[in-house]
């Protein structure tokens, strides 16, 4: 057994001792040696294909599209909204509340068409569950100092994404040492069509690989490996 295989085996044993059911990792698409090590020798399978968009903060548009409003949600509002609208994804974190409460989280916002309205801005406490009060075109997104995760729905997604991109840029300017804004989406995610493209934007393929390391606690019908490739996943910002 080579050094690489021993390291992987040791990592998997540590994961099992700590109660993990699966291990997942990203392998650089052009790194054939690494890909062969994990997939051919260690039985990892390709679970999903994602793409990373990266753009320098200084070159991002700063203006909102006309008629678009962005409003901040409290954590108590954001948790049920994420659970109600994103839980159907192939991979979704069971501890979304911990993600949104992390110190690295800069906040969660909704973006919508102003004339349709959304949340009573006079509700200063912002503890009300607003997950059922959606406009026809809307977006919810959370920004970390390492990651942006969002979900959109409706006919004006281009305007919403353009506004979110500009909003994230302005926010990033106030984050110490932040040089770029990044978003990661599934290759088959329809949101890819609406990311504002430019010559200054980098695009990186990010294939994910998965392996089941512990079979205790879940039946085969719930096996993520058996489900095959997953195209619609929630990207956990803690992985960066």
3D structure, described in words:
This protein has helices at 3-17, 32-41, 75-86, 96-101, 157-172, and strands at 22-26, 45-56, 68-73, 105-113, 138-144, 148-153, 180-186, 202-212. By secondary structure, the protein is an alpha+beta fold. It has one domain (3-120, 133-227): Gcn5-related N-acetyltransferase (GNAT) (Aminopeptidase, 3-Layer(aba) Sandwich), CATH 3.40.630.30. It has a four-stranded antiparallel β-sheet. The longest helix has 16 residues, at 157-172. The radius of gyration is 19 Å and the shape is globular.
Helix and strand topology:
Elements: H1 3-17, E1 22-26, H2 32-41, E2 45-56, E3 68-73, H3 75-86, H4 96-101, E4 105-113, E5 138-144, E6 148-153, H5 157-172, E7 180-186, E8 202-212
Antiparallel strand pairs: 1-8, 2-7, 2-8, 3-4, 4-5, 5-6
Order of helices and strands: HEHEEHHEEEHEE
How many strand elements?
8
CATH class: Alpha Beta
Q: Give me the number of helical elements.
A: 5
Query: Which of globular, elongated, flat, extended, rod-shaped describes the shape?
Result: globular
Question: What structural category do the secondary elements indicate?
Answer: alpha+beta
Q: Report the mean per-residue pLDDT as an integer.
A: 76
Largest sheet: 4 strands, antiparallel
Q: Return the CATH architecture.
A: 3-Layer(aba) Sandwich
Say what the CATH topology is: Aminopeptidase
* Head-to-tail CA distance between termini: 30 Å
Q: Pick out the low-confidence regions.
A: 120-124
Helix fraction, binned, reads: 10-25%
From the alpha-carbon coordinates, what is the Rg to the nearest angstrom?
19 Å
Provide the spatial order of strands within the biggest beta sheet.
Answer: 1-8-2-7
How much of the polypeptide forms β-strand, as a percent range? Answer: 25-35%
Count of the separate structural domains:
1
CATH superfamily annotation: Gcn5-related N-acetyltransferase (GNAT)
